[in-house]
Amino acid sequence: MTPLPLLQKREIEAGVIAPLFRAFAAEVGDTRAREIIGGVVRDLAKEAGRSASVSGNDLAHLKQAIEKWTESGALEMTVLRDDSDAFEFDVTRCRFAEMYASLGLADIGGLLSCARDAAMIDGFNPNITFERTQTIMEGAPYCDFRYRTARVEPPG
């Protein structure tokens, strides 16, 4: 069986998660529903990071994992830095954001998609730092992804 592109997987997931989220929100309130769904999504992302790191967990292997995110034109990105210490890029088009908006789920797209990124890298390799200050999903013109190897100071 051919694996589905990530964008298609997220669309299928959204069809299940969104009604559950709305039901939770009606019962426990929007804030608590976001906490519950967000926690589950982050746990899944951390486990996906662990799984992706089986063959290696350095920046080179991270770039291979990120290639999955771009399948079928899901992301258009401009690489700003790519060396042994950092992989930095801006996403200039995000079809994930477009998909959530087209499904009427723009209000939870960040919860279902963007919130995965920090947890994924934590599962992949906690010695790689991740920083992002803005996302297209939140209305910014681009998403700024900054991955860097953490400098581990020797003891003493």
How would you describe this structure in keywords?
156 residues, alpha+beta, Muramoyl-pentapeptide Carboxypeptidase, domain 2, 4 strands
Task: Provide a descriptive summary of the structure in words.
It is a single chain. A four-stranded antiparallel beta sheet has the order 1-2-4-3. It has a single domain (6-149), classed as Muramoyl-pentapeptide Carboxypeptidase, domain 2 (2-Layer Sandwich). Helix 2 packs parallel to helix 6. The protein is α+β, with helices and mostly antiparallel strands and 156 residues long. Strand 1 (75-82) and strand 2 form a beta hairpin. The protein has six helices and four strands; from the N terminus they run H-H-H-E-E-H-H-H-E-E. The chain has helices at 6-28, 30-52, 59-69, 95-102, 106-114, 116-124; strands spanning 75-82, 86-94, 128-131, 143-149. The model has no long low-confidence stretch (mean pLDDT 93). The longest helix is centred in the first third of the chain and has 23 residues, at 6-28. The relative contact order is 0.17.
